[in-house]
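Sequence, please.
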């Protein structure tokens, strides 16, 4: 199936030229291509058009999960009839295994896996191996970490069709090999139930996720395959064939497990011998106990904690060879799009070093076999070899991309909306918070939103607390917040649940927030990573989607980075204004892109994820005017005290719910109402 781009608008501004130039260069064989597009110029739409024209499987690489979720939603809207997949780290929390020799401290691995994201990862690999060409995978750099062997994943898939001759017991064995679990109770994803010659299976993920199938046998022949209702068991439709993929990326065959166990025993013996030869008896005993325990679990259960450290044996790889990663699941002619390349590529470059340093200590002191070092992300040199034809997308491309593209850059400086770069104003730091609050009040009256970036987390936290005290509805976003909760915070900002978002380094690349009319940069003159030219340009770009967008830099001196940023912005404004005058175009606020991020948030409230929250004035919450009116305290009967208790409890619940969603203004009003009701109750008792 070919890619089919669905959009209500056609390329505008300099998008047509950018699309044509990129497609022409790639068709001529250019492997490295750079798209320099200002914020809000529709770079994602340009890339979508290029993908549709080239018609190749595509990997979109992003540097963080929040941006990946936004891109996933946008591509999902552009290509509703094609396969758009989401592949990010499935850890909500991850503490890697480590050993600190200076204090003789061993830190055990601790993690929390997000089951919904795990299903989406599995769906990605299954779609890539299905043979489809119309696939777009939006991923964070986690796609460069170790994955299972794609050949094993493909070989473990179960392909059946009506009329096929297959042993009934062999079919059940294949299900177990694919890590499906047998149950006699209600079916859950990745489980199956046997009733005579009938097997009911609930798929684990993807297109068939939470769908139930019935496979009916007659002797050793598959007589029928049906999709059924998992609750009632009623047939929905009959199928001619069915493919069920494994429930985990890390699957392997029994033969490979047996071979791996033998090799692990041999390598353990070599490591013990080395430690004993060096007189390190503690390390020798430690590695012996650890590996023997792991092998017993693998032989009995097929799994052990930290089994990824033995991945080289199960993959059949040679020592020092790179692990398999998601790119191995793509065909050779795939297209790679590196979004915000000036941040993403340095992140790829740094991954290997940090992982290697931690593993060296674990191996050196007998906690892991040397093979653990081969469970790692790919090196940058390996990444370059894995790259297909690439497009580097950024408003501020770095030197590496420019060098690889031989200095040939496709520019996209005109916004289809006619918006020009926001004006940038430098103000002194004296009384900066009072000045900022005045600016915030002006925007809030127009129902616009504000971003405030600080230089440290501590400063952001303190500023957020101060805003709470002065009655400014705000939230704080940082790197420790759960993946899907970050997305929820941004959705809440757009939904009007608060007005000001405070952060340090996450309010930068790619955030599509047309409601933001003001970006305030505190400590703009603190030259460094967070306040260099690229950072300032990216932060300022968050105000570029609003017709009245403005950027205020609070600083006492004008650094070189500030000067360059302002000069580049002024050059862009001049060109954009000239284009608008030539084409009689009036600037208009950018439309809310159909982010589709709600796809990732669906069902979270009912599954123990982010608590369901509602803006003030909807369902549980009320506007300030409604707080008093919503509680009828008129005594209706002699037992009015009981009614008051119910009202007090209701006010307390509303207060706690508002506080949980960080809407402290509403929470304070509900608290005051609760106190009034308690006072009325006490007076009635007297």
């Amino acid at each position: 199936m070919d890619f089919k781009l669905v959009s209500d608008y056609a390329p505008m501004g300099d998008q047509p030229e950018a699309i044509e130039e990129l497609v022409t260069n790639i068709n001529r064989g250019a492997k490295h291509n750079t798209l320099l597009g200002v914020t809000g110029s529709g770079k994602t739409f340009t890339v979508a058009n290029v993908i549709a024209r080239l018609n190749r499987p595509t990997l979109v690489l992003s540097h963080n999960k929040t941006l990946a979720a936004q891109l996933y939603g946008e591509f999902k809207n552009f290509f509703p009839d094609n396969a758009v997949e989401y592949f990010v780290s499935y850890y909500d929390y991850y503490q890697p295994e480590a050993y600190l020799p200076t204090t003789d401290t061993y830190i055990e691995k601790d993690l929390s896996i997000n089951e919904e994201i795990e299903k989406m990862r599995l769906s990605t690999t299954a779609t890539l191996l299905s043979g489809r060409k119309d696939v777009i995978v939006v991923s964070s750099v986690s796609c460069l970490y170790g994955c299972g062997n794609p050949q094993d994943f493909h070989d473990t898939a179960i392909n059946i069709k009506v009329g096929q001759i297959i042993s009934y017991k062999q079919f059940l064995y294949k299900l177990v090999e694919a890590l499906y679990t047998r149950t006699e109770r209600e079916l859950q994803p990745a489980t199956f139930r046997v009733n005579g010659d009938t097997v009911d299976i609930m798929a684990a993920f993807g297109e068939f996720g939470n769908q139930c199938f019935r496979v009916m046998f007659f002797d050793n022949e598959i007589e029928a395959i049906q999709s059924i209702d998992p609750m009632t068991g009623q047939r929905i439709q009959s199928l001619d064939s069915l493919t069920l993929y494994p429930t985990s990326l890390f699957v392997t065959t029994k033969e490979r497990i047996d071979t791996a166990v033998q090799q692990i025993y041999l390598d353990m013996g070599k490591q013990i011998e080395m430690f004993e030869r060096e007189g390190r008896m503690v390390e020798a005993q430690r590695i012996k106990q650890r590996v023997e325990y792991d092998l017993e679990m693998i032989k009995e259960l097929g799994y052990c904690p930290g089994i990824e450290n033995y991945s080289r044996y199960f993959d059949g790889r040679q020592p020092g060879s790179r692990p398999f990663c998601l790119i191995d699941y793509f065909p050779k002619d795939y297209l790679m799009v590196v979004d915000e390349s000036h941040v993403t590529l340095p992140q790829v470059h740094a991954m290997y070093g940090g992982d290697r340093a931690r593993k060296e200590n674990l191996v050196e002191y007998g906690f892991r076999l040397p093979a653990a070092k081969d469970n790692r992300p790919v090196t940058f040199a390996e990444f370059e070899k894995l790259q297909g034809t690439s497009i580097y997308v950024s408003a501020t491309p770095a030197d590496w991309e420019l060098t690889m593209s031989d200095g040939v850059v496709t520019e996209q400086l005109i916004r289809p909306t006619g918006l020009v770069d926001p004006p940038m104003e430098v103000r002194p730091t004296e009384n900066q918070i009072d000045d900022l609050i005045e600016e915030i009040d002006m925007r809030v009256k127009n129902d616009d939103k504000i971003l405030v970036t600080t230089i440290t987390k501590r400063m952001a936290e303190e500023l957020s607390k101060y805003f709470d005290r002065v009655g400014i509805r705000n939230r704080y976003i940082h790197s420790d917040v759960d993946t899907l909760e970050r997305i929820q915070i941004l959705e809440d900002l757009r939904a009007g649940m608060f007005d000001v978002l405070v952060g340090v380094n996450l309010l930068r690349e790619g955030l599509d927030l047309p409601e933001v009319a003001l970006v305030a940069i505190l400590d703009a003159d603190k030259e460094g990573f967070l306040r260099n030219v690229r950072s300032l340009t990216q932060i300022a770009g968050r105000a570029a989607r609003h017709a009245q967008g403005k950027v205020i830099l609070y600083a006492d001196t004008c650094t070189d980075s500030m000067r360059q940023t302002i000069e580049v912005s002024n050059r862009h404004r001049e060109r954009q204004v000239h284009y608008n005058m030539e084409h009689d175009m009036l600037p208009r606020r950018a439309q809310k892109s159909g982010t589709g991020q709600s796809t990732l948030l669906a069902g979270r409230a009912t599954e123990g994820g982010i608590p369901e929250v509602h803006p003030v004035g909807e369902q549980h919450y009320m506007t300030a005017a409604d707080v008093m009116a919503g509680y009828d305290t008129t005594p209706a009967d002699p037992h009015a005290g009981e009614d008051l208790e119910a009202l007090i409890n209701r006010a307390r619940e509303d207060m706690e719910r508002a506080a949980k969603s960080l809407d402290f203004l509403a929470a304070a009003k509900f608290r005051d109402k609760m106190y009034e009701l308690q006072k009325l109750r006490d007076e009635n008792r007297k």
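The longest strand covers residues 221-228.
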